[in-house]
Amino acid sequence: MKSLSWCLFFLCVFTLNSQAKDIERKFDDNKYPDHYKQLWLFSTKAEAEGFLKVKSKMGWKGEVKEQFYMTPSQVLYFSESSDLSLITKLSEDLKKLKVPNNIISKQGSHRIVLGHFFDEQVLRLRQKKLFKNKVRAIRIEKLPESLNSVYALELVKKPQANTLAQKSVETLRHQRYQWSLLNESAYKPKDPASWAKIKNILRFASFNKLQDIEWKISFRLIYDAAFDVEDSFLKKVEEDQKVNFIPEDIYWKYFDNNWYLQLGYINIKWGNLIDTYVADVVSPKDLRDFILPRESSRDLPAIALKFNLNFEPHNFEVIWLPTPSVDKMSRYGSTFYPISSSLYAPNTLVEEDPKSLDKDMGYGIRWNVTGEDLAGSLFYLRSINREARFARTLLTGAIASVQQNHYPITRLGGTFDYTLDKYKFHFEGVYNQEDKVPTTLSNDVDGFVSLNNLHVGIQIQPYIFSSTNIVLQYVIKSYMDYTPDLMVDENEQYASVMIEKFFENSRWSPKITAHFGTQRGDSLIRPRIQWVPVPNLNLILGYDLFEGDSTGQFGQFSMADRYYIETEYIF
Hints:
Elements: E1 8-14, H1 18-26, E2 38-42, H2 45-56, E3 60-64, E4 68-72, E5 75-81, H3 84-96, E6 102-106, E7 109-116, E8 123-125, E9 135-141, E10 149-157, H4 164-174, E11 176-188, E12 194-209, E13 213-224, H5 226-229, H6 235-241, E14 243-255, E15 259-266, H7 295-298, E16 302-311, E17 314-321, E18 348-352, E19 362-370, E20 374-384, E21 389-395, E22 399-405, E23 408-420, E24 423-438, E25 448-462, E26 468-479, E27 491-501, E28 508-517, E29 522-534, E30 537-547, E31 562-570
Parallel strand pairs: 1-9, 2-9, 18-22
Antiparallel strand pairs: 2-10, 3-10, 4-8, 4-10, 5-7, 6-7, 11-12, 11-31, 12-13, 13-14, 14-15, 15-16, 16-17, 17-19, 19-20, 20-23, 21-22, 23-24, 24-25, 25-26, 26-27, 27-28, 28-29, 29-30, 30-31
């Protein structure tokens, strides 16, 4: 799972037979950049120290880490990186050594997949974040007996550049570039049938890492041709969604052995639930197309300064938000305008332009710890609420005017992870103070009352079927001091399930995601299939089905069912 803000993995697996040993001798890792890292695993400390002596004579340095435990894995990856050129080169080298493999790409990350395994055939790291390098590699030998614990040896190339000229050459040599072109097209079959979007997204990223400095520039350009094909969109909607330039990660980072300082547009993720946000409260989201686009198309960075201090297994993070960063919401008249007109019936609903943001600065602190079977975090955040609230004003002539607004909010929360045999449990909880909740009382001028609420998410991932991912999820938001005039339920509850199956070395992967609201017969069901015909081309075909009451989170979009196709080409 995923985060571009830190560690990218290389997983190299070799058997103990003579063929694997021959591959090990022939594989030339000196052809790759200095930020290419390795992590070798050994069953004894003596083996790890002996291997370190051999590698030290070849220009590598390293450190033997403490013993930690391993658990079974379902999918075997040889490598993973956001650098497609590096992944492609590694794939070609393996094929020359007669090691079959296939490249799959997902959410800006590219993986070389060797196959699917289960039980004791493959081992993976369990919640152990060992290093903060740009790239790291793991090589695991397949042992005839069960292996419960290992010693880890990190290897990194010793820096060679000393003069300014040498450093400049190394900087240019290590500069990485990545382009991708994504088309997201969707067609609504319900009356009136029309194109919902023909969105073309061009992504660009350039990144580099030196001995103690790292920087990245990335953005996406969006052009939606549906506004040229269809004439039913309002002018405000077209102006908001037809053409967009959206910055992604744009930052400068300075780091030392156990700390780093990062400044710029940063994607900060504190939570990890499917299509909903409980603990992930810092970075804003692009919700103009609801939760239907892939997560990488929803993520928006926050303008932030971040200081991270690491003393394994403890990690401390301090963030400062000099200016508010909030969700992008669609305009009135668009398919996924978040306010249902039936909520204000019999009044006619009109929209005012979003209210300008307050200049309040935000700040937060987070502590997390990672162990062999347990991991957890606690955080505090004071900021402008990135989630939109829509202030209401009742006007004469039975007209209800609504305006997007963002209010200060204080959040106290945490996460908890526990792995038990073949089951992984994930928990997120946040206590929100002075949140704004809509009410039907006319004496509230803006249509809000301030209430505290508790937002909790529970997720279970059972690893019980080979090559199959299953996620079960339950989310509840409970309001304190609840009264019947509120336009929400006292306990807003949603259940979700996701099932994904991999075939033919992950080239084919059918998937179904379903969300259900327990109060209103609310549901969103999303079957889809992904095909990777060649390493740098992804094709996805799917359908989105909305059901439920018109006041429900999903039911209000019951006329927005759509067929969709996504085509992504990575340069």
